[in-house]
Here is the input.
Amino acid sequence: MSFSLRFPPIASSSYSVSMRGLVFLVLCILILNGSDPCSGGKTSSFTRKVEKSVDMPLDSDVFHVPPGYNAPQQVHITQGDHVGMAMIVSWVTQDEAGSSVVLYWSEDSKHKKEAKGKHSTYQFYNYTSGYIHHCTILNLKHDTKYYYEVGIDHTIRKFWFITPPEIGPDIPYTFGLIGDLGQTFDSNNTLTHYELNPHKGKTVLYVGDLSYADNHPDHDNVRWDTWGRFTERSVAYQPWIWTAGNHEIDFAPELGEIKPFKPFRHRYHTPFKASGSTEPFWYSIKRASAYIIVLSSYSAYGTYTPQNQWLIDELPKVNRSETPWLIVLMHSPWYNSNSYHYMEGETMRVMFEPLFVQYKVDLVFAGHVHAYERSERVSNVAYNIANGMCTPVRDQSAPVYITIGDGGNIEGLAIEMTEPQPRYSAHREASFGHAILDIKNRTHAYYSWHRNQDSFAVEADSLWFYNRFWHPVDDSICARGEEA
Ligand SMILES: *[C@@H]1O[C@H](CO)[C@@H](O)[C@H](O)[C@H]1NC(C)=O
Ligand SMILES: *[C@@H]1O[C@H](CO)[C@@H](O)[C@H](O)[C@H]1NC(C)=O
Ligand SMILES: *[C@@H]1O[C@H](CO)[C@@H](O)[C@H](O)[C@H]1NC(C)=O
Ligand SMILES: *[C@@H]1O[C@H](CO)[C@@H](O)[C@H](O)[C@H]1NC(C)=O
Ligand SMILES: [Fe+2]
Here is the structure.
């Protein structure tokens, strides 16, 4: 298979294509019987739910406080180091501090080990948090089931997790993708669909906007607690990798709350120091055959800023022989053809897109827009203010951009799209759902998007992604007729 297959710029009227490219285009058109997806994407006309999304009431089953005095609640885990041999376990005790110790043991061992954590509380306007505990368990073995316990005396609660396999280029691994979840009946539906999807996700890549507490009067932080209890049924058993969204900022000068990210910073820790980052909002981890870079749309990223400096230092460290799949998470999408949040990601795109193309990022996942969208492999890096070259062009070194902010929060669906659909946009639909990224080996990953209206196994959008370093062949739907 040729690696030099070139596509013409989408919006160019005069261009030359190689003979091979021409044959390929003709083939593609023939296969698709006249409908040419190379020249434009699909806007699904699927009729989705139109009722308003409302938050589940405070007395809902999913917000149930575990029984017993000072019982640990809102238990959640995330990767605790750079390589997947540590786990951060977090929880809240409401009545008193209690213990910050986690007892843990591997499935084949009876000896309980102990890890000591720390706790803190915070105030937000007239809300005082419970005791928030964070404990990092170190030196875990790869690919091992561990049980763990938090709490003391009569209120011990037991959970388990499975550590990722050792890092390596052909290690299969399955990620779930959820964004903008919130805590409505739709959010519960999304989480249930993720849990019951026959493709079992082992770790969630969460693209930001967690509780939507800030949509309640005075940013009612009780809604941070309810979100913690709601999501526990998944995140106590498998790590969710956190990205900060705009609903994590909680900047409310009218309430005297002027320090951005206060609740998020206290409640959701990330292993940022392990990747040389100086803030919890941008960092990286390796997991199986993937290298995940998390960026913050709401921290400075211009030239000379800490995040910018970090990313420039970070990208050359990615060794594709070790972790072939380079994936970036952020909240605000760069390629978004929905009217909602249109062009909000543009400033970060201008700063970082040349790096993504240079380092051949495979996939970029974002949230923020409450709909689903998948792009073609395009870049828009030629523009220099004077040359007028400001249209995205097909680029086999560019990532596919996926917006998966369709978790189902209180703000409802973003149904108004820009028209006509831009040619870089391959598939878009305003429905709630989640996605699965099933990495098979260094060359192939199977991706599927699942909408909440369908039964659990239905794939509303799916395709194979080919790795940009090991198999940089066109993987668009158009090119599928010519399977490599
Ligand atoms: C906080 O203040 C609001 C009014 O601004 C009030 O409704 C609420 O009950 C107060 N909450 C607490 C915990 O005092
Ligand atoms: C949330 O979903 C779970 C699992 O499907 C279900 O048991 C529960 O009753 C739902 N709760 C609400 C409030 O919809
Ligand atoms: C990249 O990873 C491979 C496989 O683990 C290793 O052999 C090689 O030395 C690494 N390269 C660098 C520059 O660290
Ligand atoms: C990688 O996975 C794909 C999809 O399962 C498979 O077709 C291909 O043969 C695999 N490659 C190798 C080298 O095993
Ligand atoms: Fe958002």
